[in-house]
């Protein structure tokens, strides 16, 4: 096997001595990498091995993925599949025989793990599933021996993948999730996070990318993860407040923006967003003050920093300020 595809892990179980990267698991089971990452983020099936900051799948994880794919493909509800996997995780470590001698099958209302002498009921199910673990071992070896498709340089660091993702995001039109630039940016951010699971800026940027295509729950999860890695990540704080405003919760947005302003009093995003949230609840006087702070902050930037959407928001803020001053009689 290629050293780039497999990592040796010290363990007493010969069947669990290999660790498999998400790309190899994707090829093995013909599952999109994005689905494997989603399963991991939601706690459905997570890589159980961590080496030098990276996460990998164990062979037991591969068994869980194989079972999940077959059961979901046969139409079993997700919650029942989750219960089956929970039971498998409990029962597999109890088996004394090497994993290669196990079989996993599903018949009638039972998911069963078998070794040469015992059967273990895992959970309910009503599909035909007969998984020979030795065959899975052989399939893994075949997939890992296959040549990789040519692509971006695999030796890139997490930061280099992050920069590449930023480049592809800049090339994206901003409205078509099928645009190759969007797909490449998302995959590159994922690669950066594979290499450095504590990369807060990558979580923030990927969350913003998801928000742009309407995946607000996914975006919120990524912003929360960014703040877990770096509680002082102002961009993630601003984005969470913006999501609250976008989903019709101005009170939460106000609290979020005010918290950000306590840490970063000159944040243009916070002043502008807080003004919008205050207007949504009728706080016109306070909104006027924050819009004026926003305009003054933009005017204090160098000309090159005022390009694009920032200039457009300043123009909009100027019109709103004029209207508020007339309405409030403040000049």
Describe this protein's structure.
Residues 1-17, 94-102, 115-131 and 148-154 have low confidence and may be disordered. Strand 6 and strand 7 (119-121) form a beta hairpin. The protein is built from 14 helices and eight strands. Helix 6 (158-170) runs antiparallel to helix 7 and helix 12 (268-280) packs antiparallel against helix 13. It folds into three domains: 6-145, Multidrug-efflux Transporter Regulator, Chain: A, Domain 2 (Orthogonal Bundle); 153-231, Alpha Horseshoe (Serine Threonine Protein Phosphatase 5, Tetratricopeptide repeat); 256-331, Serine Threonine Protein Phosphatase 5, Tetratricopeptide repeat, CATH 1.25.40. Strands 7-6-5-8 form a four-stranded antiparallel β-sheet. Strands 1-2 form a two-stranded antiparallel ribbon. A two-stranded antiparallel sheet has the order 3-4. It is an alpha+beta fold. Helices cover 58% and strands 9% of the residues. The relative contact order is 0.06. It comes from Nannocystis exedens. Residues 20-87 form the HTH merR-type domain. One of its GO terms (biological process) is protein O-linked glycosylation.
* Dominant shape: elongated
Averaged pLDDT, please?
Answer: 77
- Report the CATH C-level class of the largest domain: Mainly Alpha
Q: What fold name stands as the CATH topology of the largest domain?
A: Multidrug-efflux Transporter Regulator, Chain: A, Domain 2
Question: What is the N-to-C order of secondary-structure elements (H for helix, E for strand)?
Answer: EEHHEEHHEEEEHHHHHHHHHH
Poorly predicted sequence stretches spanning 5 or more consecutive residues: 1-17, 94-102, 115-131, 148-154
Strand order of the largest sheet: 7-6-5-8
Give the oligomeric state.
Answer: single chain
Number of distinct beta strands: 8
Beta content: 5-15%
């Amino acid at each position: 096997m290629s050293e780039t595809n497999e990592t040796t892990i010290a363990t007493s179980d010969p069947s669990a001595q290999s660790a498999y990267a998400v790309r190899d698991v994707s090829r093995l089971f013909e599952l999109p990498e994005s689905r494997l990452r989603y399963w991991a983020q939601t706690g459905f099936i997570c890589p159980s091995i961590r080496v030098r900051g990276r996460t990998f799948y164990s062979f037991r994880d591969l068994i869980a993925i194989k079972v999940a794919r077959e059961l979901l493909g046969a139409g079993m509800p997700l919650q029942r599949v989750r219960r089956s996997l929970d039971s498998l995780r409990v029962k597999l470590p109890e088996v004394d025989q090497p994993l290669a001698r196990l079989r996993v099958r599903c018949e009638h209302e039972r998911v069963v793990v078998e070794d040469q002498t015992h059967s273990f009921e895992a959970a309910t199910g009503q599909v035909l599933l007969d998984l020979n673990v030795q065959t899975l071992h052989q399939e893994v070896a075949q997939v890992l021996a296959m040549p990789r498709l040519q692509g971006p340089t695999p030796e890139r660091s997490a930061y280099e993948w992050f920069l590449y993702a930023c480049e592809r995001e800049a090339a994206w039109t901003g409205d078509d999730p099928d645009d190759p630039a969007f797909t490449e940016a998302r995959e590159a951010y994922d690669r950066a996070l594979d290499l450095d699971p504590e990369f807060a800026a990558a979580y923030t940027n990927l969350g913003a990318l998801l928000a742009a295509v309407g995946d607000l729950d996914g975006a919120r999860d990524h912003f929360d993860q960014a703040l877990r890695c770096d509680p002082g990540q102002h961009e993630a704080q601003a984005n969470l407040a913006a999501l609250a405003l976008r989903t019709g919760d101005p009170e939460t947005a106000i609290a979020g923006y005010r918290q950000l302003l306590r840490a970063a009093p000159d944040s243009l995003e916070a002043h502008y967003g807080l003004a919008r949230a205050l207007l949504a609840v009728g706080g016109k006087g306070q909104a006027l003050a924050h819009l004026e702070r926003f305009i003054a902050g933009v005017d204090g930037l160098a000309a090159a920093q005022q390009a694009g959407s920032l200039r457009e928001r300043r123009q909009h803020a100027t019109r709103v300020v004029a209207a508020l001053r007339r309405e409030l009689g403040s000049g």
